TrEMBL record:
Catalytic activity: L-aspartate + ATP = 4-phospho-L-aspartate + ADP
Biological pathway: Amino-acid biosynthesis; L-threonine biosynthesis; L-threonine from L-aspartate: step 1/5; Amino-acid biosynthesis; L-methionine biosynthesis via de novo pathway; L-homoserine from L-aspartate: step 1/3; Amino-acid biosynthesis; L-lysine biosynthesis via DAP pathway; (S)-tetrahydrodipicolinate from L-aspartate: step 1/4
GO molecular function list: aspartate kinase activity; ATP binding
Biological processes per GO annotation: diaminopimelate biosynthetic process; homoserine biosynthetic process; lysine biosynthetic process via diaminopimelate; threonine biosynthetic process
UniProt entry keywords in alphabetical sequence: Amino-acid biosynthesis, ATP-binding, Diaminopimelate biosynthesis, Kinase, Lysine biosynthesis, Nucleotide-binding, Transferase
Family annotation (Pfam families): AA_kinase, ACT_7
Database matches in PROSITE patterns: ACT, ASPARTOKINASE
Domain ACT: 344-404
Keyword Transferase: yes
The protein's name in its UniProt record: Aspartokinase
Binding site for substrate: T52, E79
Organism, scientific name: Paenibacillus uliginis N3/975
Family: Belongs to the aspartokinase family.
Gene Ontology cellular component annotations, sorted alphabetically: cytosol
Length: 404
């Protein structure tokens, strides 16, 4: 049985017109003799009736006291409504289909409600249903604990549902349908001349996704990479082939369109606070700073430790908690909220002279101060004020000629 997994995101399902495109993609692949597993997200974006953000707002506006376990139950409704709607449309078109929830599709997770991790996928029921119908629709973003509680996989988790199910079913390919023409050199909402990349390696896209390119969830790419199943990120609204994500093998790379590029793209994470604390190593103070952050479940990034102090970032949403925890240690932290982390990503930047010089040149040409920087063998990060973020991304995109 040739199995293809198709995942449709929120905007791909948001209107009757969008759903017509979805049905066309399903029909085309059925004609190619695939058995289809279609993973769906909740329909639409914030403000639309059954979108995940709308359901979250609803729970906040109505008491905001919902325990995490029950909140997951509420969130699961978005994907269930979406799946039932698509099933009804397919039946109407004469295509046989059935719906399975995450639990029925075999997703077993831990009990970290709101951000559960997949422990196992047992796809026996999906396989059995594929013998009876042309399309098995699976609600993305959800699973169930060993004891039967509904869980959700964290924001953007439908991508992970699709690749995890694709891996468990040994699918031929996983198609991620979204509202852009594949993976681009930057978020097209910010950089207008961002260019679609026809081919990328799992590692390249994984790095971009980890740095904030939300077109695909990083966990989803990691799972696909482990099973080496090709992933295609493509638009629901055009016929473009999008971006094919595979593993370069050094032999077929030229045919496959792998290009030796230094920099593959730029990405960003906003709403970050920079914290600096003057403290030396006496009385284990520096250690106490990081232990206190961990005890308060505050995730820290961009860490810089010097003999006289520590410098790091947290999300704006955690900054108050972080500051009062530090004051509790009798320290006098300084903080700068409203920052953004801008990244230049590329497998080829390791050891190449001049990359940092280009970054500094691009930003100083626009008078953008760099508040902090760091690098790894695939990424260079700079911290800038949030109001400089858009300009910084555009300047870097243009400096590295990513539009070409
Ligand atoms: P879906 O609902 O289909 O999962 P998402 O909103 O999660 O869609 O992801 C698609 C969005 O990701 C695009 O609309 C785009 O604005 C954003 N995005 C950010 N970085 C990139 C990038 N490098 N390439 C393509 N899209 C990107
Ligand atoms: N509907 C969920 C979210 O908005 C999952 C997803 O779209 O991938 O996060
Ligand atoms: Mg998404």
């Amino acid at each position: 049985m040739r199995i293809l997994v198709q995942k449709f995101g929120g905007t791909s399902l948001s209107s009757p017109q969008a759903r017509t495109h979805v049905i066309e993609h399903i029909r085309r692949e059925l004609a190619r003799q695939y058995r289809l597993v279609v993973v769906v997200s909740a329909m639409g974006r914030r403000g639309e009736p059954y979108a995940t953000d709308t359901l979250l707002d609803w729970s906040e506006q109505n008491g905001n006291g919902l325990p995490l376990r029950e909140k997951d139950l509420l969130l699961c409704c978005g994907e269930i409504i979406s799946a039932a709607t698509l099933c009804s449309l397919l039946q109407h078109e004469g295509i046989t289909a059935t719906v399975l929830t995450g639990a029925q599709a075999g997703f077993i997770t831990d009990n970290q409600f709101g951000n559960a991790r997949i422990l196992d996928v047992k796809p026996d029921r999906v396989r059995a249903e594929l013998e009876n119908v042309q399309v098995v629709i699976v609600t993305g973003f959800q699973g169930q604990t060993e004891s039967g509680d509904f869980t959700t996989l964290g924001r953007g988790g439908s991508d992970t549902s699709a690749t995890a199910l694709g891996a468990a079913l040994r699918a031929e390919m996983i198609d991620i349908y979204t509202d852009v023409n594949g993976i681009l050199t930057a978020d097209p909402r910010i950089v207008e001349d961002a260019r679609p990349l026809s081919h990328m390696s799992y590692t390249e896209i994984c790095n971009m996704a980890h740095q904030g390119a939300k077109v695909i969830h990083p966990r989803a790419v990691e799972i696909a990479m482990q099973s080496l199943i090709p992933v295609r990120v493509r638009s629901t609204f055009t016929d473009s082939e999008g971006t094919l994500v595979t593993q370069p093998d050094g032999f077929h790379d030229v045919q496959m369109g792998f290009v030796d590029r230094f920099v593959s793209g730029v990405a960003y994470v906003s709403n970050i606070t920079q914290i600096s604390v003057e403290c030396d190593r006496t009385e284990g103070l520096q250690l106490k700073v990081f232990k206190t952050m961990a005890e308060n479940s505050i995730s820290v990034d961009f860490i810089n430790v010097t003999p006289t102090g520590v410098l790091y970032t947290v999300f704006d949403s955690d900054s108050e908690k972080a500051i009062s925890a530090l004051q509790g240690l009798n320290l006098k932290p300084r903080s700068l909220s409203g920052c953004a982390k801008v990244s230049v990503i590329g497998g080829g930047i390791n050891g190449v002279p001049g990359i940092m010089a280009k970054i500094v040149e691009a930003l100083s040409e626009h008078d953008i101060p760099i508040l902090q920087s760091a690098d790894s063998n695939t990424t260079i990060w700079v911290l800038v004020k949030k109001e400089d973020m858009v300009q910084a991304l555009r300047a870097l995109h243009s400096k590295f000629e990513l539009h070409r």
